[in-house]
Amino acid sequence: MKFFINDAQDVVNEGIDGLLTDPNLTRLDNFPEVKVVLQKELDKNKVAVISGGGSGHEPAHAGFVGKGMLTAAVCGDIFASPSVDAVLSAIIATAGEKGCLLIIKNYTGDRLNFGLAAEQARELGYKVETVIVGDDIALGQEVEQRGLAGTLFVHKVAGHLAEKGKSLDEIAKTAQKVANNIFSIGLSLEEGKKFQNPESSRLSSSEAELGLGIHGEPGVKTIDMEKADDLMSKAVEKLKEYLPKKNNEKFVLLMNNLGRVTPIEMNILLNSFQKLEIARQVEYIIGPSQLMTSLNMSGFSISLLKLNEGLRDSLTSEVEPVSWFIRKFGGNSSIESPDLPDTMPFKPSENMQFKNAIKAVAEELISLENDLNAIDEKVGDGDAGSTFATAGKKLLEVADKLPYANTAELLITIGRILAREIGGSSGVLLSIMFTGAGNSYKEESNIGKALMSGLQKMKDYGGAKEGDRTMIDALQPAFSALENGKKIDVVAKKARQGADSTKEISSTKFGRSSYLSEESLKGIPDPGAEAVAIVFEKLASL
User: Where is the secretion signal located (predicted)?
Assistant: First the structure.
């Protein structure tokens, strides 16, 4: 895999250096031997709240250092617990007379190193309490439950109470109650890949894993790869085995991106969640976003916290860390859409010559879809044929509703259809052209002049001109011939000559072709110009 790194050995240190561009954060000066990120402006009259663990879970843990959350975060190497000395350094650097709370995810290394540091700090006279978070229900409650993204709930509540000046005892007891009422589960399509010696995935392209740990540890079972709705449903069904059974229980949802799931996929997963019955019991949501990741794992986790009135203020109060944001959770809603001008405002009328011509052109555009897409694959984004085919299908759909007897109305209506129904810039540009032509035809009943006038509007808005390797290279010579009274066979030849000329145009500032090298364009026509030429050739054959 490719990574934006300098040296795999320096990833953690340089990542922390990047984070420390935040003026509210600083580090201990024995960095990088000891990797402790802490608030720059410490208030030792308040309880210090400290957490941490292995790196690779960013923004956790250092990304949640700031007023209202963590006082300090102790960072280990990738997926490795920080040393006892690092944790002890954080305690001594931040704890005042009120003491400090250590929030520990339930992993052996973290429990041992944070626990021993706490004992050593107590020997030195510091007040230290610990809260161990094991929110992962994947493997059941009979085993040691791992600490997942639900730990962030504890960070937020403890940080809020510390900011309010509460005692260490009160903060520790409340934090433990919160930890006891968090339920989390993850689901992944592929494990995160380490910067050094990345292992191959144990999952095939047709598999997903329910309950995968944040260090890539196996989950409860491998399941079939399915649609987002089905995967979310399976995750929630497993979670519900351990949730309180009261229907009136309220929850806060934390929707966590485990690394490389795209934002749009996370929103799809959230939509899948809100379709489920449990969503009616959710009052607030954190995310969906990267909160506690597993490097670039392709997966998500969901955490639910039982909500009571005492927690509401603790969870919703403002904090410095930008990685934390919470909002109300609600279902989809909509407001009335404004009325837009009618796509076809004119009464249908008959002109069989025009009707047959439009029908033939529409069918031709549909038949050209694959051929034009193949051309566009070489010089564009591969969808030109689909765009023109969509136009053809829509024209056939409304064929009996068009005002064929009034040329101006017909041109304007085609323009509106293209604007509303056809995607991409070509649909908009052709809409501008046909609309302009229709308005021009009202003033002078010359189809060639009207189309040239519409083409000028297209050029004014689009910026391209003849010779820029666009559909204009076929449209302009064809319309010019029409304007000069030439017959349709001559017009078609002019369009064909224009389209063929684009094969030799290898330097352009417009369209997708402008991103390609001159060599890759030679010998290949512009797909839009090719479509125009074929349309005129079809008209000439009628």
Answer: none
Whether the predicted model's global pTM rises above the 0.85 cut: no
**Spacing of C-alpha 505 from chain mean position:** 37
Query: Under 8 Å CB-to-CB from 342, ≥6 apart: which residues?
Result: none
Q: Alpha-carbon distance 436 to 446, whole Å?
A: 13
In the chain the domains, ranked by start, together with CATH numbers, are: 10-193+207-328 (3.40.50.10440), 352-541 (1.25.40.340)
What tokens were used for 48?
Answer: 């210090």
Euclidean distance between CA atoms 390 and 523, whole angstroms:
27
CA–CA gap between residue 452 and residue 455 (Å, rounded): 5
331 in Cβ contact with 274 (< 8 Å): yes
Q: Which two tokens stand for residue 108?
A: 């052996």
59 confidence band (pLDDT: 50, 70, 90): very high
- Contact of 314 with 355, CB cutoff 8 Å: no
Rounded CA gap, 505 and 473, in Å? Answer: 10
What span, in angstroms and rounded, lies between the C-alpha atoms of 418 and 214? 49
Asked if residue 156 lies in contact with residue 307, where contact means CB atoms within 8 angstroms, the answer is: no
User: How many Å apart are CA 448 and CA 483, to the nearest integer?
Assistant: 4
- Inter-residue contact 344 to 401 (CB < 8 Å): yes
| Amino acid at position 205, single letter | S
Give the CA radius of gyration of the chain: 32
Q: Which stretches of 353-507 are assigned E, i.e. beta strand?
A: none
- Pair of tokens at residue 174: 């409340």
Rounded Cα gap, residues 148 and 51, in angstroms: 13
The burial of 541, by beta-carbon neighbours within 10 Å (0-12 exposed, 13-18 middle, 19 or more buried), is given as exposed
Which runs of consecutive H residues, i.e. helices, occur in 100-255?
Answer: 108-123, 151-163, 168-180, 228-240
Integer angstrom CA distances of residue 189 from 16, 20, 223, 268: 28, 32, 10, 15
Phi/psi for 288 (5° steps) reads -75, 130
- Check 61, 155, 160, 215 and give the catalytic one: 215
Listed in sequence order, the DSSP H helices in 131-196 are 151-163, 168-180
From residue 105, how far is each of 67, 412, 531 by CA, in Å?
Answer: 21, 66, 62
Phi, psi of 516 (to 5 degrees): -105, 160
H-type alpha helices, 241-317:
263-274, 309-316
Mean pLDDT (the chain, rounded): 93
Q: Count of CB atoms within 10 A of residue 11's CB?
A: 20
Q: Is 215 a catalytic residue?
A: yes
For residue 118, give both structure tokens: 């706490």
| 434-491 pLDDT tens trace | 999 999 999 989 999 999 999 999 999 999 999 989 999 999 999 999 999 999 999 9
Task: Answer for the pair 286, 255: CB distance below 8 angstroms, yes or no.
Answer: yes
Q: Which residue has the tokens 């549909």?
A: 366
Taking the C-alpha atoms of residue 28 and residue 82, their distance in angstroms, rounded to an integer, is 14
